Amino acid sequence: MKLIGSTTSPFARKVRVVLAEKKLDYQFVLEDVWASDEIQKINPLGKVPALVMEGGQDSITGSMFDSRVIVEYLDNLSPVGKLIPDKGRERAEVRTWEALADGVLDAGILVRLEKTWSGRSEPQRSAAWIERQMGKVHAGLAAMDQALADKSWCASNHFTLADIAVGCCLGWLSFRFPELAWQQQHANLARHLDKLSQRQSFQDTAPAL
């Protein structure tokens, strides 16, 4: 398999952590979606990550995209370290955690683009838009922190995709928004990220320029 992504994308990192935890072999191909349109041959939306499946071609028909789709596919490739429950309330809980963490990331990425995208001049940048999106970031962090009180893992009583999604979210916020200092207000999340950061899969995929 070939994973197209970047070392700064939290969604690509989520897939990379799953690949490591599932002990699956793959080739990691770096792609800068802001400097090249090559990704659109695989994902017409022009986003990473995208997975070219083993034996497939570098085209839409031989690939899949969106990190949530990819991680579910990968989790079913091997019985090793099952990360997503098969059905029922436990499955819904894990996927809800993932949706919450991904939603915080979506809002954070919109803030970063509003602040830094070269396609906007300074007068065009919207403080109201930034404030609205940051409100989602803060609300999401508060909800996750409260839900982690007196819990060892996000969902169930063991490591799941929920923990991976949350860890990648928090790692990206620390990487792109160090001034946010979210750890000071969310001790449960800070504790959880410290624990996740001890896993080799997280150490090997830490975001980097």
Automatic annotation (TrEMBL):
Residues 1-82 form the GST N-terminal domain. Pfam families: GST_C_2, GST_N_3. It comes from the Bacteria. Residues 87-209 form the GST C-terminal domain. PROSITE patterns: GST_CTER, GST_NTER. This is Glutathione S-transferase N-terminal domain-containing protein. It comes from Inhella proteolytica. The lineage of its organism: Bacteria, Pseudomonadati, Pseudomonadota, Betaproteobacteria, Burkholderiales.
